[in-house]
Specification:
With 430 residues, this protein is of the alpha/beta class. The protein is 35% helix and 21% strand. Strands 2-1-3-6-7 form a five-stranded parallel β-sheet, with helices on one face. It is an enzyme of class 6 (ligase).
């Protein structure tokens, strides 16, 4: 990597990403690493200009207060600490430094250059991909979402026809989603695209599975198995491309930070993985992924497409997945997206979707008592997917959506709007 780097050591803070984003916004690249990083691991990182020891309310793990290795203090890197009383470095901050103080540390103390931008990042990644892949081929999981689309553009720039894209319909896609992916990437962009309909396979594996973590791991593991099977039909496939981004890694947990949820492409990977991973976006936050896509020349409508989780509707069909509830979810979600598009909210709301819990409530249909599912609508705004606020939807629009869903999806008899921010909630329900 050509860009200068500031390393943030996680000593139990809940605000690691806040500091990382503050530093990146000031034009310097930053990464979060575990508190017990070794000298050798630190020195193996490229262009480290300074270190931040970031303490906080989670400093105590298993009854002991975490500490950095003493030998780190003897290195030549400039160092500051935040909310870490055990620190042996000279500069003490009790709370997050403001931009002026951070600029002083970055540019005067560390002598870092403000060279973090998407043009430099892409140049670095193209060089790294070519070095990693050589003359081999990369198999890319192409969902058609923002992350995988940007990865595809990056890999095409780096290795061209050595890229083979695979779109797997796991039966958990939104209405007409797979058909749209094939149309855009195979028919319009002429990508080397393999389409696999694995609906029955995935739903069979998920039958009766209610635990969210287990569902994610089954979906992630089965994805890999499908790719392995497709790779065996080809020659020279040694690498698997993935749209892993930085929040996926952070939320899947570090040695100090607690796991929020295992992302299917991080915690869900099988131990006997047969591929070497190519993950050029794993250092980027979501807004940076979009900026990268624009820099790569992707159309805005693709780059700013609403996020869709890798496990798809599997984490919105809450609890054990049933086919009737999954189909009800797919239809309700299509209605929500249609109404948001008509009102223009699809261009202003970061993410919006329907989830359906695994229970029924009593209602009235055709003048008789009936039991039906509940559709839960969620609409949030965020910059980096680490925090999120609630979109205040016009009540008339909500009523229109509820009327359409209950009229057109007869297995649903209640529609509710969920209004909890992240944190304490996550964006998805599972």
């Amino acid at each position: 990597m050509k860009q200068d780097m500031i390393v943030i050591l996680d000593l139990g803070s809940t605000e690691n990403t806040v500091i990382a984003r503050q530093i990146r916004d000031l034009g310097v690249y930053s990464e979060i690493h575990p508190h017990d990083i070794t000298v050798e691991e630190l020195q193996a990182l490229d262009n480290v200009k300074g270190i931040i020891l970031n303490g906080g309310e989670n400093r105590v793990v298993d009854g002991q207060e975490v500490q950095v290795r003493d030998e780190l203090y003897g290195l030549s890197y400039p160092m500051i600490s935040i909310d870490y009383p055990q620190s042996k470095c000279e500069a003490q901050y009790q709370e997050l430094p403001d931009d002026a103080a951070m600029k002083t540390f970055l540019f005067e103390t560390c002598k870092a250059e403000a060279n973090w931008n998407m043009k430099n990042f892409i140049e670095d990644q193209v060089e790294l991909i070519r070095k990693q892949v050589g003359d081999k081929k990369v198999l890319l999981a192409l969902s058609g979402g923002v992350d995988s689309s940007v990865v595809a553009a990056m890999l095409i720039k780096a290795i061209g026809q050595q890229l083979v894209c695979v779109h797997v319909n796991h039966g958990l896609m939104r209405k007409n989603e797979s058909e749209g992916v094939v149309k855009v990437f195979r028919d319009e962009l002429h990508a080397n695209l393999i389409y696999v309909d694995a609906t029955e396979r995935f739903l069979g594996k998920l039958d009766g599975v209610a635990d969210p973590e287990e569902k994610r791991k089954i979906i992630g593991g089965e994805f890999i198995r499908v790719f392995e099977e497709e790779a065996r039909k080809l020659e020279g496939i040694d690498f698997l491309g993935q749209g892993t981004i930085y929040p996926d890694i952070i939320e899947s947990g570090t040695k100090t930070a607690k796991c929020v949820k295992s992302h299917h492409n991080v915690g869900g990977l099988p131990e006997d993985l047969q591929f070497e991973l190519v993950e050029p976006l794993k250092q980027l936050f979501k807004d940076e992924v979009r900026a990268c896509g624009i820099e790569l020349g992707l159309p805005a409508e693709m780059v700013y497409r609403q996020p869709f989780p890798g496990p798809g509707l599997g984490v919105r069909c809450l609890g054990a997945i049933t086919r009737d509830r999954l189909e009800a979810l797919r239809e309700a979600d299509a209605i929500l997206r249609d109404e948001f598009a008509k009102s223009g909210l699809d261009k202003t709301v970061w993410q919006y979707f329907v989830a359906i819990p695994d229970f029924k409530a009593v209602g009235v249909r055709d003048n008789a008592r009936s039991m039906g599912y509940m559709a839960v609508i969620r609409a949030v705004n965020t910059i980096d997917a680490m925090t999120a606020t609630i979109e205040r939807i016009d009540y008339d629009l909500l009523e229109r959506i509820a009327d359409r869903i209950t009229a057109e999806v007869t297995s649903i008899n209640r529609v509710v709007y969920e209004i909890t921010k992240k944190p304490v909630a996550t964006i998805e329900f599972e």
